[in-house]
């Protein structure tokens, strides 16, 4: 097992907020991003989600690939993950919440939830983002995000955690899909303990984007913008990815395998092998 040693000078603070606090993050001289696990096995969740997205209809520019890592910082050793820095020179990450507040002086999240219907909320976010950025296929992008959120049970997608890329001239690009560590019941400290049956826990997970029901969000976005994500992996692929990972213990890997297999049965229509 290799261990990466990181230092205070590499520590990074971000505007983007998680609903459960912020992980320790570092940007190394190699331009690699490192994240330490904070509430459970976020690093393994990032690894699994990204490598399964590699077995999907997305192309490799549309998502960020993560590998698991053992991190040494000061006198502590953490499990976590590493990814490449995807920001081109002169570009920065702009959350939709910040973008909307800069443009209109209002909270995007509050505006969304002032609307009654889920479809109306989704359309409002998409239309406002297109109006500000000119990214005309943002509805397609949102359909991809809400599909993977439903499948992988990502509970941390909110307006501070959806972003676009912006340069100095205020030109915009789509942001590759990244930061899915709050998936697959990874929070074993607060909400999803290892000793509770996963069927019970899976029924308790709620999204934070447009409502508290993954399937209602997914149905609404597919009706608006179509099905925009197809998975092309099998149970054997899931097992192979877990077996090839060298840092996390077997009981966590088995839990993730069971979650994904259950989701494969539930969302069979998303698969084409």
Task: Note down, in words, how this protein is organized.
- The chain is of the alpha+beta class.
- 38% of the residues lie in helices and 15% in strands.
- It contains nine helices and eight strands.
- The strands form two sheets. A five-stranded mixed sheet has the order 1-4-5-3-2, with helices on one face. Strands 6-7-8 form a three-stranded antiparallel sheet.
- A hairpin with a 4-residue loop joins strand 2 and strand 3.
- The mean pLDDT is 94.
Write the layout of secondary structure elements.
Layout: E1 3-6, E2 25-27, E3 32-36, H1 42-53, E4 67-73, E5 76-84, E6 91-95, H2 96-104, H3 108-113, H4 118-133, H5 138-152, E7 163-167, E8 172-174, H6 198-204, H7 214-225, H8 235-244, H9 250-266
Parallel strand pairs: 1-4
Antiparallel strand pairs: 2-3, 3-5, 4-5, 6-7, 7-8
Summarize the structure.
The chain has 273 residues and is α+β, with helices and mostly antiparallel strands. 38% of the residues lie in helices and 15% in strands. The model has no long low-confidence stretch (mean pLDDT 94).
Gyration radius (Cα, Å) is: 18 Å
Q: Strand order, main sheet: write it out.
A: 1-4-5-3-2
| Category from helices, strands and their pairing | alpha+beta
Beta content:
15-25%
Q: Tell me about the biggest sheet?
A: 5 strands, mixed
Separate helix tally: 9
Helicity level: 25-40%
So what's the overall shape? globular
What pattern of helices and strands is seen along the backbone? EEEHEEEHHHHEEHHHH
Q: How many β-strand stretches?
A: 8
Give the integer mean of the pLDDT values: 94
Ranges where pLDDT stays below 50 over 5 or more residues in a row are none
Distance between the termini: 34 Å
């Amino acid at each position: 097992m290799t261990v990466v040693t990181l230092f205070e000078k590499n520590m990074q603070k971000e505007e983007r907020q998680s609903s459960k606090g912020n992980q320790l993050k570092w940007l190394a001289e190699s331009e690699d991003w490192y994240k330490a696990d904070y509430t459970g096995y976020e690093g393994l969740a990032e690894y699994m989600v990204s490598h399964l997205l590699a077995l999907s209809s997305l192309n490799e520019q549309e998502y960020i690939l993560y590998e698991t890592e053992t991190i040494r910082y000061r006198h502590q050793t953490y499990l976590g993950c590493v990814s490449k820095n995807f920001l081109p020179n002169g570009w920065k990450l702009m959350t939709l919440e910040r973008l909307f507040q800069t443009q209109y002086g209002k909270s995007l999240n509050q505006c969304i939830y002032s609307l009654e219907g889920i479809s109306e909320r989704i359309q409002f976010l998409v239309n406002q983002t297109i109006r500000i950025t000119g990214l005309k296929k943002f509805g397609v992008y949102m359909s991809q995000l809400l599909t993977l959120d439903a499948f992988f049970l990502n509970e941390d997608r909110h307006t501070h955690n959806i972003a676009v890329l912006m340069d100095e001239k205020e030109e915009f690009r789509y942001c590759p899909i990244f930061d899915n560590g709050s998936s697959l019941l990874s929070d074993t400290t607060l909400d999803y303990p290892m000793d509770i049956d996963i069927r019970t826990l899976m029924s308790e997970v709620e999204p934070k984007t447009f409502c508290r029901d993954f399937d209602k969000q997914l149905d609404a976005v597919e009706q608006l913008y179509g099905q925009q994500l197809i998975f092309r992996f099998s149970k054997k692929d899931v097992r192979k990815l877990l077996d090839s990972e060298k840092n996390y213990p077997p009981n966590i890997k088995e839990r993730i395998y069971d979650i994904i297999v259950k989701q494969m049965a539930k969302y069979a229509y998303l698969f084409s092998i």
